[in-house]
Amino acid sequence: MNLTFSIATMQDFPAVCAFYKEVIEKTDMEKAARWVYGKHPTDRMILNYIEDGCIVLAKQDDTIVSAMAQTKAQGADYHPIPWSQALCDDQVSVIHLFCVHPAVSGQGIGRAMIAHAVNRAKEMGKKAVRLDCLSSNTPANAMYEHLGFAFRGTQVLFADSLGDVLFRYYELNLN
Predict the structure, then answer these.
(1) Is residue 152 part of a domain?
(2) Given CB 3.0 to 4.6 Å as the disulfide criterion, which of 55, 66, 130, 151 pairs with 100?
(3) Separation of alpha carbons 161 and 168, rounded Å
(4) What pTM value is reported for the model?
């Protein structure tokens, strides 16, 4: 597997949007993240993440095969979860919008992308990587646990594309 990782720039914006649209189109979203492009994710959401330097791309032969938003802090919606460490928001990196193109699923790209995110968080001096996942996304939940992320709790949140949904929260401590 020959992957290159990069931070998306404004020049990548059309390709990143096209990538997410294609992943949604080619994935059985009832069994996965249940995303609806235009509701979650949106062009504005992707643009904001790119402007903040948060979109991480994995490419094979100059083709995007995986993407995620890796933020440099957690939001207030993460505060109610019983984390193993009480950390300030800026001591945490959070993974959002993580996906692998279904054409390359099962090739270890997801594991490589998460490993890259963990290394980036360490380089940023973060003490933990956290993420949330729909409780119904069994394959993703299993992958996070297999990669060493500890389940820390659930929370019902409103999602534009789904209404009220149950999310599972995971944490990987870095110290």
Answers:
(1) no
(2) 66
(3) 17
(4) 0.94
